[in-house]
């Protein structure tokens, strides 16, 4: 029968010790809610008494109607020479009002004598007193044995003495922490197996990722008998981070058939959870993150796409939907016809070999000139329309001009003029607009000229602008590639432009962005071949 493995999330405490991570109270509450919805067993909300934000969190989290998770207040053993009743840290843990308290204590004799600078007996007393005191106040106590593996390697008798003190004082679990993240899987599994022989309460595991094996270590500890895994979403945390609970949960549920996150129900939402936490922690998504990254099931090589089209499992270790992710096929110079077929299934076009080859040849040719379609799918869609003959320009450029003037102003003044003809033979519009920079000015002028005809462009805006110098084929001058991300209330799309001139590259990407929006709103992206006017690229 599947064994229930408890997932203990410390994103809000250990995760927030990661460089650059700074959650607001509201962020913490939102993450708590989502973790609870997915079925996490424990959520460590913060370090009790450390700062006002954590104090406010512990007060406001009580207002949440949590269905599943226990909130834990984290803190350390009492200070040396102070009774537990007088210890500010233990009092702060009590005043959070949480049912569960997680106490961290020292295991490694080196830390006791050199960092805390107390004698070995006093440290054991600090552990016993702290756990016992919280227990006597009616709290469930989880004990985090800091530096457990380093301590055990240095002095196994003393390490065991410390955790047995916690056990005897009433802790419900001993969590073995690889605090410095320096232990490798075989050694870690062996130690967990040995320690179990001496401890009568369950063991948990808390790994850091300094050797890039925190997830592997957590899985090995479970194999060796640990019943709780502590970690953070996306592995955020101090130094190289903690075990990524996203991968831990997916591996335990899908690969090892263990019962996590409400019988695996929560596992289907791991991608959503991962991106939500990235968003709130203001960090960039890790595209190649296992299971949930945007590239985790992205196929680029032509031979792979050919195989995946026949049998998805030929190049996928699991069905991406099991973790709420999706399969993606990328188009690039490494594509074969299979990539193009897969990418154009949404188009109501004839997928004959000749057309597929024509599209592929053009992609390879353009990528050789510095274009890149794998991250600019809207430009690829327009390219397909052009080659399939279903494209009719929404406007025609007569000319554009951009000027930047500095004389007499604090900030340079940027102005763009565009002259366009709407549709094939529609009115001519000549407009001028200012902007924060050349691209913004061009965008403003384009909108001014186009919105009288295409009112829906008012609902579109630019989200991101990236430019990079590229190495195109030998012998040509340096080129720049501009990728523009645009959005409206429903979608986000990316377009690309390449030129020796950054303004022209931006113009090309802007024009694609606008045309894609217009085609999209008309439901025309991918119009059938037979309905299209023949207008070759
Ligand atoms: C492995 C981990 O992740 S443990 C968690 C680490 N996280 C944090 O430290 C974040 C939150 N920390 C804080 O807000 C502050 O450090 C506080 C409030 C806990 C303590 O602040 P301060 O009192 O100013 O002490 P400071 O941080 O400089 O030093 C830590 C003190 O705790 C003592 N200490 C460290 N670990 C323990 C322990 N397990 N039990 C008892 N005392 C401990 C140290 O000896 C030191 O006291 P000393 O200066 O008297 O020797
Ligand atoms: C408790 C903890 O965060 C650690 O030892 O790494």
UniProtKB/TrEMBL annotation:
<dbReference type="InterPro" id="IPR000891">
    <property type="entry name" value="PYR_CT"/>
</dbReference>
<dbReference type="InterPro" id="IPR036230">
    <property type="entry name" value="LeuA_allosteric_dom_sf"/>
</dbReference>
<dbReference type="InterPro" id="IPR002034">
    <property type="entry name" value="AIPM/Hcit_synth_CS"/>
</dbReference>
<keyword id="KW-0028">Amino-acid biosynthesis</keyword>
<dbReference type="GO" id="GO:0009097">
    <property type="term" value="P:isoleucine biosynthetic process"/>
</dbReference>
<dbReference type="InterPro" id="IPR005675">
    <property type="entry name" value="Citramal_synthase"/>
</dbReference>
<keyword id="KW-0808">Transferase</keyword>
<dbReference type="Pfam" id="PF00682">
    <property type="entry name" value="HMGL-like"/>
</dbReference>
<protein>
    <recommendedName>
        <fullName>Citramalate synthase</fullName>
        <ecNumber>2.3.3.21</ecNumber>
    </recommendedName>
</protein>
<dbReference type="InterPro" id="IPR013709">
    <property type="entry name" value="2-isopropylmalate_synth_dimer"/>
</dbReference>
<dbReference type="GO" id="GO:0009098">
    <property type="term" value="P:L-leucine biosynthetic process"/>
</dbReference>
<dbReference type="GO" id="GO:0043714">
    <property type="term" value="F:(R)-citramalate synthase activity"/>
</dbReference>
<dbReference type="Pfam" id="PF22617">
    <property type="entry name" value="HCS_D2"/>
</dbReference>
<dbReference type="InterPro" id="IPR013785">
    <property type="entry name" value="Aldolase_TIM"/>
</dbReference>
<keyword id="KW-0100">Branched-chain amino acid biosynthesis</keyword>
<comment type="pathway">
    <text>Amino-acid biosynthesis; L-isoleucine biosynthesis; 2-oxobutanoate from pyruvate: step 1/3.</text>
</comment>
<comment type="similarity">
    <text>Belongs to the alpha-IPM synthase/homocitrate synthase family.</text>
</comment>
<dbReference type="InterPro" id="IPR054691">
    <property type="entry name" value="LeuA/HCS_post-cat"/>
</dbReference>
<keyword id="KW-0012">Acyltransferase</keyword>
<keyword id="KW-0412">Isoleucine biosynthesis</keyword>
<feature type="domain" description="Pyruvate carboxyltransferase">
    <location>
        <begin position="5"/>
        <end position="271"/>
    </location>
</feature>
<dbReference type="Pfam" id="PF08502">
    <property type="entry name" value="LeuA_dimer"/>
</dbReference>
<dbReference type="GO" id="GO:0003852">
    <property type="term" value="F:2-isopropylmalate synthase activity"/>
</dbReference>
């Amino acid at each position: 029968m599947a064994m229930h493995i408890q997932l203990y999330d410390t994103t809000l405490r250990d995760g927030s010790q990661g460089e650059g991570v700074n959650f607001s109270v509201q962020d913490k509450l939102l993450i708590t809610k989502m973790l609870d919805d997915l079925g996490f067993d424990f959520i460590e909300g913060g370090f009790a008494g450390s700062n006002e934000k954590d104090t406010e969190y512990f007060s406001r989290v009580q207002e949440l109607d949590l269905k599943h998770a226990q909130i834990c207040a984290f803190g350390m053993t009492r200070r040396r020479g102070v009774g537990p009743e007088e210890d500010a840290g233990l009092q702060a843990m009590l005043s959070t009002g949480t049912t569960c308290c997680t106490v961290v204590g020292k295991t490694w004799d080196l830390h006791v004598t050199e960092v805390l600078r107390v004698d070995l007996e006093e440290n054991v007393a600090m552990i016993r007193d702290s756990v016992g005191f919280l227990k006597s106040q009616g709290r469930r106590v989880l004990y985090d044995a800091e530096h457990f593996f380093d301590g055990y390697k240095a002095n196994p008798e003393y390490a065991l003495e410390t955790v047995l003190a916690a056990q005897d004082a009433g802790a419900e679990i001993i969590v073995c922490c690889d605090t410095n993240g320096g232990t490798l899987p075989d050694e870690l599994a062996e130690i967990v197996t040995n320690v179990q022989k001496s401890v009568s309460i369950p063991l948990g595991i808390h790994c850091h990722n300094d050797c890039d094996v925190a997830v592997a270590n957590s899985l090995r500890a479970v194999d060796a008998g640990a019943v709780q895994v502590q970690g953070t979403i996306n592995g955020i945390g101090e130094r190289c981070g903690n075990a990524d609970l996203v991968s831990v949960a997916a591996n335990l549920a899908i690969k090892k058939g263990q019962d996590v996150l409400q019988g695996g129900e929560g596992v289907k939402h791991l991608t959503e959870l991962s991106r939500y936490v990235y968003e709130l922690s203001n960090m960039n998504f890790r595209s190649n993150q296992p299971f949930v990254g945007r590239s985790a099931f992205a196929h680029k090589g032509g031979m792979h796409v050919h195989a995946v089209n026949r049998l998805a499992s030929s190049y996928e270790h699991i069905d991406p939907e099991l973790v709420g992710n999706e399969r993606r096929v990328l188009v690039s110079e490494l594509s074969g016809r299979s990539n193009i077929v897969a990418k154009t299934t949404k188009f109501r076009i004839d997928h004959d070999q000749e057309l597929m080859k024509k599209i592929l040849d053009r992609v390879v040719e353009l990528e050789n000139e510095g274009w890149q379609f794998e991250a600019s799918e809207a430009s690829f869609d327009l390219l397909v329309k052009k080659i399939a003959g279903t494209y009719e320009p929404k406007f025609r450029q007569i000319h554009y001009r951009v000027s930047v003037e500095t004389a007499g102003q604090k900030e340079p003044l940027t102005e763009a003029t565009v002259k366009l003809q709407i549709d094939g033979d529609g009115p001519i519009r000549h407009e001028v607009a200012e902007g924060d920079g050349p691209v913004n000015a061009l965008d403003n002028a384009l909108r001014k000229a186009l919105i009288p005809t295409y009112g829906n462009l008012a609902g579109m805006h630019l989200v991101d602008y990236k430019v990079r110098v590229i190495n195109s084929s030998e012998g040509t001058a340096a080129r720049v590639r501009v990728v523009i991300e645009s959005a409206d209330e429903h979608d986000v799309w990316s377009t690309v432009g390449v030129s020796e001139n950054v303004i022209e590259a931006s113009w090309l990407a802007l024009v694609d962005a606008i045309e894609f929006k217009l085609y999209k709103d008309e439901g025309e992206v991918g119009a059938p071949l037979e309905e299209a006017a023949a207008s070759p690229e």
